[in-house]
Write a structure and sequence with these properties.
It is a single chain. By secondary structure, the chain is an all-alpha fold. Helices cover 79% and strands 0% of the residues. Helix 3 packs across helix 8. The longest helix is centred in the middle third of the chain and has 30 residues. It is globular.
């Protein structure tokens, strides 16, 4: 199953970067948002850490939504998803491959946005940046797990699919709150409670189990 998942992730990477529109759109949106908000501060003043962290995760959430749309739009073209269901590999391999691709896509965007936060908002890393990196990676994993299931629910153009998507978005709030605290801690302006690590790990475990169980039914439309 792992080999099939890596094949799916590699295929999605090639298709995304051949088109490159989604990655460029997400990056330019994030860069523009950071630049516009930098105009609201006094020259030389440092932006508040929690505000910068909120901007960081707002961009991340937008990028994850764009990524989910792109990844599953590939399977809708020429009924490629139906062809995958007819193969002998487990359907969970497709979900795992989409999750890996979404995680790497999101991480790539974040690595490109962090320098913009440092330059335009005059942010500086604090002594607990290592804890912030670990928590951010766990939050990214949670967004990728949740987003891969969200992308499967969002297939098609019916109002029922859109309703499922709208209901699923609030489940991302614990991850976003934990991520904001972590990034603000990484910028050295607030302390970080280790209970957020436990909450994030529990969130990842729940959605990993939900994806493994529910994805075959969601993707096949049963």
């Amino acid at each position: 199953m792992i080999r099939a998942a890596l094949s799916v992730a590699g295929k999605d990477f090639r298709l995304i970067f051949m088109r490159s529109t989604g990655f460029a759109q997400a990056f330019l949106f994030g860069l523009l948002l950071v630049f516009v908000l930098s105009l609201s501060r006094d020259p030389g003043a440092q932006f508040e850490a929690q505000n910068a962290a909120a901007i960081f995760w707002l961009i991340s959430l937008f990028c994850q939504t764009v990524c989910c749309g792109m990844l599953f739009a590939v399977e809708e073209q020429n009924h490629a998803g139906r062809g995958l269901l007819l193969t002998s590999v487990p359907v969970q391999s497709l979900w795992l491959g989409k999750m890996i691709a979404g995680f790497c896509f999101l991480l790539g965007i974040q690595l490109a946005i962090v320098p913009a936060l440092v330059i335009f908002l005059n942010m500086q890393t604090g002594p607990l940046w290592g804890v912030a990196v670990v928590e951010t990676l766990l939050c990214d994993l949670g967004l990728a797990l949740c987003g891969s299931l969200l992308g499967a629910l969002s297939q098609g153009h019916g109002s029922k699919d859109m309703l499922f998507s709208a209901v699923l978005f609030p489940f991302m709030l614990p991850i976003l709150l934990a991520g904001i605290r972590a990034v603000a801690c990484g910028f050295g302006q607030i302390d970080f409670d280790t209970q957020w690590l436990g909450l994030t790990f529990a969130f990842d475990a729940v959605f990993a189990a939900a994806g493994l169980i529910l994805f075959p039914f969601v993707f096949s439309g049963e």
